[in-house]
Amino acid sequence: MTKILVINCGSSTIKYQLFNMDTKEVLCSGLVEKIGEAMSRITHKKFPDTDKATKTIQEEQFPTHAEGMKKAVEMMMTGDTAVITDINEIGGVGHRIVHGGSYFKPMVVTPEVIENLRKVIPLAPLHNPGHLIGIKVAQEIFPNATHVVVFDTAFHQTMPAEAYMYPLPYEIYEKYAVRKYGAHGTSHKYVARRAAELLGKPLDQTNLITCHIGSGSSICAIKNGKCIDTSMGLTPLDGLMMGTRCGSIDPATVGFLMRNAGMDIDAVDKMMTKQSGLLGICGVNDIRDVHAKVAEGDKKAKLALDMMNYRIRGFIGNYFAQLNGQLDALVFTAGVGENDEIVRRAVINGLTGLGFKLNEEENDKRPGEYALISAADSKFKIYVIRTNEELEIANETLALM
Fold first, then answer.
1. The CATH number of the domain where 267 resides is what?
2. Using CA atoms, how far apart are residues 313 and 348, in angstroms rounded to an integer?
């Protein structure tokens, strides 16, 4: 049995899933959170041969990622939560990396790869430092496993220069590699492959617009199976309005606020990254809370929701044009895209002029692994596809083992 552990380390969290790659089944998954705080917590789910996982929650202090990871391994190996008997049963460890710079494919971890990831920390300061800590800790715990880094930016490296270049002096690109990189590529790649399967077409003959809508959101235009444009840019701040991120705004706003509001660059960056988006407009960033406030008549919550949907429609329309209307399907995925029928309805009903038409009954159902939600007379198919970034990372890791 080939077993691969997929890890996603944040600044104070570790998400993990252990796969049996012979069957593509999840053996266990978990979340270590509040690392470095007075009290941390691990939630571990074991998946037996039943439909329901066994969930175990424990609280104790994990001063660093090392203690958190060791606790996760302990739960994988001991007692009622065990799924392995020997640490060497794990042959590969796949690491999710938000920003890989110019890397266009998954890589086996080497000192050179680590150094290059350090260099691109300024492009994903909220994510990449945690990823590097996770790699170091995992290499110490799993010294005999093959460690592979899978980049959220990699799928987008097929964009043509006219899509990824910024109209700044060319020397800025040459000296500092300032360009569009995109994000969520692992998710876009996974749902693109699944959509092609559902359409019964080879991926390299499939044109899609994929909408990864969650707390962080991005949209991707896919022509013949390859990304030709995406909404996130140099960093994951660009593009759509998100939970706490502003997305695309006039770049002169930064200088304006520094000159007129007494804010320094760090304050502006914090505001745009952590205090804007839905949170900035209506005070909450969870879409469920936004809907609840709308139902109560909150005008700011209604405005926030309308703004988010407006921008989603705008990017879909842009990419529809870039594909010259040659589209096989529109795909919704991620937390909001998969589970929020209100957002999907608002987006699709604003695109009827392009030929999209919703099947209201199917849209209102809770989708499983996928659902076709377009009406029979819709010019283009509309799918909801549950993303599985972890399985995509496990597959990429297996390919390099």
1. 3.30.420.40
2. 8
* Residues 31, 53 contacting (CB under 8 angstroms): no
Q: Average per-residue pLDDT in the chain?
A: 93
CA distance 349 to 368: 23
Q: How far apart are CA 42 and CA 61, in angstroms?
A: 10
**Cα 26 from Cα 388, distance rounded (Å):** 11
With bands split at pLDDT 50, 70 and 90, how would you rate the model's confidence at 157? very high
What is the structure's pLDDT at 281? 98
Token couple for 318: 């842009």
17 pLDDT more than 60: yes
HSE-CB for 181 with a 13 A CA cutoff? 24
Q: Does residue 322 share a domain with residue 229?
A: yes
Q: How far apart are the first and last CA of the chain?
A: 14
Per-residue pLDDT of 255-286, as tens digits, reads 999 999 999 999 999 999 999 999 999 999 99
Q: What is the pLDDT of residue 98?
A: 86
How many domains is the chain built from? 2
Which range of residues forms the domain containing residue 70?
3-151
Asked whether the predicted pLDDT for residue 9 surpasses 90, the reply is no
Q: Report the C-alpha gap between 50 and 1 in whole angstroms.
A: 19
Residue 87 lies in a domain: yes
pLDDT in tens, 87-111: 999 999 999 998 887 778 899 999 9
Active site residues: 152
% the chain with pLDDT above 90: 77
